[in-house]
Every structure is written in structure tokens, then in C-alpha cells.
Design a protein that fits this description.
2-isopropylmalate_synth_dimer, 3-stranded antiparallel β-sheet, 2-isopropylmalate synthase LeuA allosteric (dimerisation) domain-containing protein, single chain, 3 strands, transferase, LeuA_allosteric_dom_sf, alpha+beta, 82 residues
């Protein structure tokens, strides 16, 4: 968390990183496996609001990734690839 401005009307900028336990990714360069992470950012005059915005942003990215993965998996299964 960082302060964007100073004083009584200061704005806090927050960055949150979350990971999904069921989403393992392989690094294309090193070949190492690890958990996929998703980040979100938020800014507000209230630290709590800033943090919640960042967390919701990260959750939205996670949900979008899971939805896209499910759609691609269904398409591959329909094509007989899986």
C-alpha cells in the first residue's frame, strides 16, 4: 500500500496478489511449475475501501481465467482432442 497524496485527504493505492490452489502453470522458459497468481489494484481515501477494490479486482481476474479455461476445455472435448 502506498500513499498517493499527503494530508487529510490522502489517497491510498493498494495492490493485492492472490493465488489459486487449483491453477498450476508451467514457466515457458524454465519449465518450473508454480501456482498462477492474480493481482488487483485499488485506490481510495479509505484504506479499507482501497484494499477491497484491489481484492475484488484480483478475484474478478481469477473468475475470468477460470471461466475462459472451462470454455476452452469444453471446446477441446467437443473436438475430440481430450
Amino acid at each position: 500500500m502506498n500513499a498517493v497524496t499527503e494530508g487529510i485527504d490522502a489517497i491510498a493505492a493498494t495492490r493485492v496478489v492472490i493465488r489459486s490452489d487449483d491453477s498450476i502453470a508451467t514457466n515457458a522458459v524454465t519449465g518450473q511449475k508454480g501456482y498462477r497468481t492474480f493481482s488487483g489494484t485499488g485506490a481510495a481515501m479509505d484504506i479499507t475501501v482501497s484494499s477491497v477494490r484491489a481484492y475484488v479486482g484480483a478475484l474478478n481476474k481469477l473468475a475470468s481465467f477460470n471461466k475462459d479455461s472451462a470454455v476452452k476445455g469444453c471446446a477441446l472435448a467437443a473436438a475430440g482432442v481430450c
